[in-house]
Amino acid sequence: MKRFACSYFHDGSEWSLVIHAYDIADAEARCKRLGFLRLDGEIIAVIPARFGVLVKLSCWFRTLFSQRGGR
After folding, report:
1. How far apart are alpha carbons 25 and 70 in whole angstroms?
2. Is 0.70 topped by the overall pTM?
3. Which of 17, 25, 29, 44 is most buried, most CB within 10 Å of its CB?
4. Pairs from 43-47 (Cβ < 8 Å, separation ≥ 24)
5. Residues whose CB is less than 8 angstroms from the CB of residue 26 and which lie 6 or more positions away in sequence, other chains included
6. Whole-angstrom Cα distance, residue 64 to residue 67?
7. Which residues are paired to 6 by β-bridges?
8. 18: which strand partners?
9. CB of 28 closer than 8 Å to CB of 19
């Protein structure tokens, strides 16, 4: 199963969590079923915080060439 990042708003703050799903369609269905989650996208890598510049570059590159147009 793949990991997907989701978020929701509660008590004046935004919170994030990870769900497991078979693909993007399955992740969307799971978020819809729960009702309060917004699907942020698939987690493709986990990079330690000490590599902050690499994180920004990898996110920019992934967004630039994503099929969903940066969503």
Report:
1. 17
2. no
3. 29
4. 43/2, 43/3, 43/4, 43/5, 43/18
5. none
6. 9
7. 17, 39
8. 5
9. no
